[in-house]
Amino acid sequence: MERRKTDDATAPGRRARPAIATSRATTSTTSRGATTSVASRAMTSFSPADEEKRRGVRRMKSTATGLLLLVALVYALAKWAQDSGAGPWAGYVAAAAEAGMVGALADWFAVTALFRHPLGLPIPHTAIIPTKKDQLGVSLGEFVGENFLSEGVVRQRLRAVGTGSRLGAWLAEPAHADRVTAELATALRGALTVLRDSDVQAVVGEAVTRRADAQEIAPGLGKMLEKVVADGGHKRVVDLVCVRAHDWLVLHDQQVMDAVQGGAPGWTPRFVDRKIGERVYKELLRFVTEMRDAPSHPARGALDRFLTDFASDLQSDTDTRARVERLKTEVLARGEVQDLIASAWTAVRSMIVSAAEDERSELRLRVRASLLSLGVRMATEPKTQAKVDGWVEGVAVHVVTTYRKEITSLITDTVAGWDAEHTTRKIEAHIGRDLQFIRINGTVVGSLAGLLIYTVSRVLGA
């Protein structure tokens, strides 16, 4: 009586959870606790399907109990008939019915002991599921870890599946490639939508600035300029400058002459200044025209030598390299440059989103073609299949070996978070109907065994 009062005071309306469950629930992380809470709610609620299974269990219980009462009635009638001198047959019937009752009661005790204490008596090793729930969870987690999450099992199962060939055959279908392309486009648009432009711009600007600060650009510029000069790539630029300079001089002749006259001393006569301005303009126009029309002009050669020397200085001269670095730092520090770097993300994002939304864009067409090509190779080339299978096996093995404890602890902690009473009811609803067949079979097998034993004893006694 004192024990019952203590239990009632500890957990009104239900049994107290074992200490191990309380300890696990206290020390679990927030995410794991949320998972356990969800699983606990699932175990404490009964769906319509669960209720139907519970009704089926009750019907089977009634059937098994009715069969027990039937053999008890048969036993009573057989004993009465035997005492009344009905004949030898009454003894056989009584023996069979008696053994049937023993078998039925024994199996009733075994089945009931799984879920609760028979007749409410605290008999040792009964109510196994509610009292051993946490230990069963630990054992289940260990069983899953050893038999399903081992490296050998994972590799064997994945190798038997043939992931590479199956995925390749699926992906080689144009409809499937279209579907994957559309899903990738949707995921890309979603990711770009979630990202805040200000955050990305700040990251891009910082990354570009940090990379530019850390990397000396003068040697690279020198090598590039050296190659351009060696290949004659700068000549087109020189040609363009000469043509534009000639055209500008032709259109702005008076401005050039006025500029020359304006720089003359005040004591010179004006007609002299005008003559000098005209002479300077004509010589300048002649020089630009000759430089434009003569690829071997001395000025072009001087420019080539200057660019060659400058390319060499960029690579080897300390002062030139230091000046370029200072100029780079000053340029990067300007607000206009930082705004230009940051705004590049907006243009890139807009371009990518537009390409992802357009089914006929070059981006989506290329992705679709790549997927189809990959699918064909995976479906037909053993080498590609082996690579894909090896990659999948490696990833799966890495996951199960690295996170096996977390996976098994998820099972253990989830089971530990279940309410013992509701868990027992739910398990009984799912397997109780089959367990009641054990009681029925026990009654039938017991009756047959009792009849056989009684028959053998009668034969030997005779």
TrEMBL record:
Regions crossing the membrane: 63-81
Chain positions covered by the region annotation Disordered: 1-57
Signal peptide: none
Entry-linked Pfam families: DUF445
Keyword Membrane: yes
Listed Low complexity bias regions: 18-42
Keywords, comma-separated and alphabetical: Membrane, Transmembrane, Transmembrane helix
Keyword Lipid metabolism found: no
InterPro entries xrefs: DUF445
Coiled-coil spans in chain: none
UniProt-listed PANTHER family: INNER MEMBRANE PROTEIN, INNER MEMBRANE PROTEIN-RELATED
Identification of the protein by name: DUF445 domain-containing protein
Record organism: Streptomyces caeni
Lineage of the species this protein comes from: Bacteria, Bacillati, Actinomycetota, Actinomycetes, Kitasatosporales
